[in-house]
Structure formats: structure tokens, C-alpha cells
Amino acid sequence: MRPDFEACGQEFVRGSKDIYSHYVYNGTVRGVLQSAEASLITVEGCRALCGTGTGYYPWKDSSNSITTWVLPVIGLIVQAPFESNQAWQTILLLARWIGSPIAVLSYILWNIKVTGKCALMVDMATKYNEYPDSDSEFSIMRDSLYILAIMNQYSVTPGVPPVEAERLLRLALFSNLLHLPASRDDPASLVKRRTELASNLREDRKKGVVPVFVSFLWFVFSLGLTIDLAFSDIGTNQTAHNLAIGFLMGWLPILVLASTVDRNLVSADAIRTKLNRLVYDVRCALLDPEILSIYMRDTRTTPEDFSWMHCLGDWDTFPKDLFGRFGGQGRSHWHYGVAHPLLAGIESKFMAEYGRDWLRQGYAARLAIVVGSRNLNGLKMLDPRMVWQILASVFVIGGSVGGAFILSCRLHEVGLRRR
Question: Residue 326 forms beta bridges with which residues?
């Protein structure tokens, strides 16, 4: 039988003095109920007068929680960057986001930082308030760094030699003089290939920040309204309950909004194929003795500069596809990306010395980026500055969930605490 708390409360307050004196709570009251004038009943008295059955919230209170939190949260979740026609992967991704939100948010914030560093290097490549033409050296470098930012969301195929893979990516992204096998007579074939690829990537980019931002504002508005109701009507169980739910899920809009800024492409598999094809064609060009000799002549390099190429012809050691599964937005464990080792090499080798307008000597800059860099760790490079993204994720999610638990235990001790 369901207990009627309102009826048994009236029986306790207006009943006989024996019942009141036997079951009244005279102990210490903590929290916001210290100033409450209402009489408090013991647990034993509540069981004796109200019974031990289950009491349900009225539909008015339940519908309030549904419309205030459940529906906005569902609206945010469905706008997350899931992959199309990948039902099982979507379920696993949602479980990972809910189960390990700190790790997922750390990966997302790190990738946003790397993408921002790509944009900063592009901005520093030219003079302030200067707008180069679409066929300028600046435009070519912008396309290269944009492709690198897209590559950063893919995991490298296991077993690929990290040093050789890093130098191969440098050639594929920043060389302007390497002839591709399909266009031996065109010295700008690699540049045209990257320009076309960057244009296709920009067209296929998902654009959904504004709708998610509007949903985020609605969530913040609901949270502020619930805070106002909770503290203007102290003692009401439902308002405190809604406030705790709001803080418990307060990290979700931040994660979805950040993942939308760091949004994947429409078709991750199709883009991976294009990226692997670009790297594969550059690899085939380096394995062609005629093309390699022409490239060494044009760049005034020696065979010693390409001594690292010995494993490119071994398809067992160095697989055909450099990039494997899509790992963006926390889809893969310990996903670090390929962009930061290359960006660190560019920054330390050339950009740090020349500063703004570092691309004014385009030939020297590209030669330093492609040939002059000697990163002994290759793609296996961990920057300790990533700890700031981890700490930010711990602060956002830990603060939100911790606030919900504090409210549940301290704000309203009757009913809510015992859930």
C-alpha cells in the first residue's frame, strides 16, 4: 500500500500528544533546516504512521523534472557528433562519453588546442592585415595545415614506424616540388592535389555549432531558473531535487558543445580513404628512383637526407594505409594525434627564429620543415602541457558532479538525502 505522507503528517502534528511526544525528533538539525519551525519526525515514527510502502511523486512534479531537464538533455545528446549508419559504434561512443567524461573531454580540448595552433601558425605566416592571393605561398601553407588538423583526428595504423611516418607526412603536407607518379611532367601536381583535397574537406565539414549553442543556452537558463526556485522556496523537496539533477548533468552541455566545435566530417571513412591515398601516392613517388633524383636535384639535397626511406618499400613493416580508425572526440583510448609532433618541429626549426611573416622565405621555410627537421621520437611525442586539458576536464566535471552530491546531502536532508 502506498503511504499518504500528507495524511500521516497531519496525524503526527494534530494527533494525540502521546504520538507526538513519542515520535518527535529532538536531535541536532544541520543545514538549511536549522531555522525551520516545522516539527520533525523520526524514521521510526515515519514507518509507524506512514507505513513502509513506496510513495511516488505527483505527475505535476514529475513532468516538471522531465520538461526542465530530461528533454533538454536528450536534445543535446542527439546533436552530438555521431557517425551516420554506425548504430553499434554510436552506442559504444555514447557509453564511453557517459562512462569516462573526463578522459573524453581531455581529448576534445587537446584536439581543439592543436587545431588552434594550426590556425595560429597560418596567421603568423603572413604580415598583419595582409590578405594574400589564393595561389600564394600563404594559401598553400594554409591548405597543408588544415589537412594536418583533419589528420589529427585519425589514429595511426598499429605497427607503423613512428620516425619514418613523421618524415613521410612532412613531405606529403609541406613539399611543393615533389612530382606525383600520375603527373610526372607537372611539378605542381602535389600542390594541386592538396588544394583540391583541402577544398573538399572544407565543403564536407559539418556545421552545427549554432543549434547546439542555442540548446546550451536553454540548459543554462533552466539551471538558473531552478537555482532561483530552490533558494526562494527552501524546504520544498522538488526544487532541491531539480537543482541537484541540473548540477549532476551540468557537464554534458559543455562536452557536447566542445565536441561540436571539434566536429568530425560527414563521412569519416571516406575522408580517411582520401588522406591515405594522398600519403600513399607520395610514398610511391619517393620509391620511384627517377622522381626522387629529380626532387633531390630541385631541393639540392643528398641521398643521406633520405636514408630513412629504407622501410617504405616493405609493405609488411609499413602498411599501405597510414591512418586507421577515426579516433576524434574520445573514440579511441590514448588518442594523441599526429599533428603536434609536426607542429612542434615547425615551431622550433623555423617559426621561432623568424616570428611573424615566417613564410616570407618560402623555399627556405619548406626546406627546413621537410628536410631539416630531425625528430628522433617521430610521431611518439607526448607534451606535458596536455596536463592543463586534463585538469580543466577534472575541474568542469568534478565540480559539476561534486556540486550535485553536496546539494543532495546538505541542502535538503528530508527525503532527498536518502535517495
Answer: 154
Distances (CA, A) of 116 to 123, 151, 254: 10, 14, 18
**Is the CB of residue 38 less than 8 Å from the CB of residue 213?**
no
212 and 259 Cβ atoms separated by less than 8 Å: no
Q: What is the pTM of this model?
A: 0.77
Q: What was the pLDDT predicted at 276? A: 92
* C-beta separation of 254 from 105 below 8 A: yes
**Helices of type H across 52-206:** 59-65, 71-77, 87-99, 101-124, 137-151, 162-174, 189-204
pLDDT digits (tens, 9 = 90+) for 262-276: 665 667 788 889 999
Q: CB-based contacts of 350: which residues, under 8 Å, 6+ apart?
A: 358, 364, 365, 368, 369
CA dist 227 and 217 (Å) reads 15
Please give the torsion angle defined by the CA atoms of residues 339, 344, 349 and 354, in that order, rounded to the nearest 10 degrees: 100
Single-letter residue type at 28: T
Amino acid letter, 117? K
Q: What is the pLDDT of residues 345-398, one digit of tens each?
A: 777 766 777 778 888 877 777 777 886 556 666 676 677 777 888 899 999 999
**H or E element, residue 326:** strand 323-326
- CA 140 and chain centroid, separation: 28
